[in-house]
Structure formats: structure tokens, C-alpha cells
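Researcher: I'm preparing a figure for a lab meeting and need a structural model of a single chain. I don't have an experimental structure, so a prediction will have to do for now. The sequence is pasted below. Please return the structure as C-alpha cells so I can convert it later.
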Amino acid sequence: MIAFFAAEPEEAEALREALAAREALEAPFPLHRGEGLLVAETGVGKVAAAMAVAHVLTRFRPSESFFLGVAGALDPSLRALDLLLAERAVQWDVDLTPFGRAPGETALGVRFFPSDPGLLKRAERAARALGLPARRGVVATGDRFLAERKEAERLRALHGADAVEMEGAAALMVAYRFRHPMALVRAVTDGAGEGATGDFQAFLKAASRRLGLLARALVE
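Model: Understood. Here is the structure written out cell by cell.
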């Protein structure tokens, strides 16, 4: 069984439609089942994402999973609707530097949580087959919507991040602790600076549809 996770209702709806996941299951969040797969709508933020991933991994024990959703670009070369295949993700708002840790480094001693290389390669092949612009990179995750250009530039410089969002690193941290293969893929909606809120709303549905196409290609 493959599990798909998405935070926003629009993202999850696009996945459910693309994957024909129509059977609603009992869970603390919207969860639907299709043939050989699950689609979980985690809700926004790191805690919501971590809770949903842990619940699905514990209860259903999928063989692999993908966390799909949207993100704001930190790399100015990324354009709206481009796909970013996250090789790794960091929680940019974790700060244990008074204890000698690097910025974003968790108490586990891990700063960057990785996507599964094999699943990332599958996503890369699927995007290429669909003709969708996609490249690899680094994602920064935090519990705040980033709409300030100077802070976006600081995060890019500090973590080498190409995009910013609110769930990915937490989901990958849970997968890391469970030793579960998961890949994180993001579609760009905005530039994570002034105007980000309007761009996010404008491109959310189109980006979600693109992620639905990718998800369907991953199970075909």
C-alpha cells in the first residue's frame, strides 16, 4: 500500500480525485482509501503533519509514502508550478544553538531529514514523463507562512534552501524515526516574499492539479 499525504484541503482533494480514493476511513483527520493506496489530509503545520504521518504508519503500515503539496520559492530561478523534489528538509524554526547545535539541528542530532532516494528518483522519472518542469533541492519547514523577502533570503543563505513550507521536514522526521521510505515533493505557488499570500491563493488549485497528475503517474 502507498500512502499519499497533503496538508491543504485543495491539495488533498486533487489527490483523491486523481487517485480515485473515495472510501472515507475513520481517523482524526480526513483519510480516504483507493485501490492499494491511502490519501491523508494532514492539516497545516508541523504538528498536524507529524501526527497524521505517525497515525497512518502505525495503523496501516504502508510500504512507502509521498508527501505532496505547495511551497514558496526561495530560489529566484524557480517559477510558479515548478516541481521541487526535496532531497532533504530542515526545520528552520528549530533553534538549539545555545546548546552548541547548528541552526535547525534537532535534539536527535539531525539537521536535514532526507527523502528516500529511490522514491525521489521515481518522482523525477514521473515528472519527466509528464513533461513537468522539476528539479531537486532543499526545503525549509516552519510553523509560519513566510511573506517577508529579507527573511526568505536569510533562510536561503543559512540552510541552502530552495523553497519554504510548513510540513515537510516534520513528516520526513517521523518517517526517519519509523525507518519508513518517504519522499517530499513540492509545487511552487509563490516567491515567499511580499505578495506571497496573493500568489499562493492564485496558484494553489493549479499546483494541486499538477500534483494530482504526478501522484497518478506514481501508481500507474
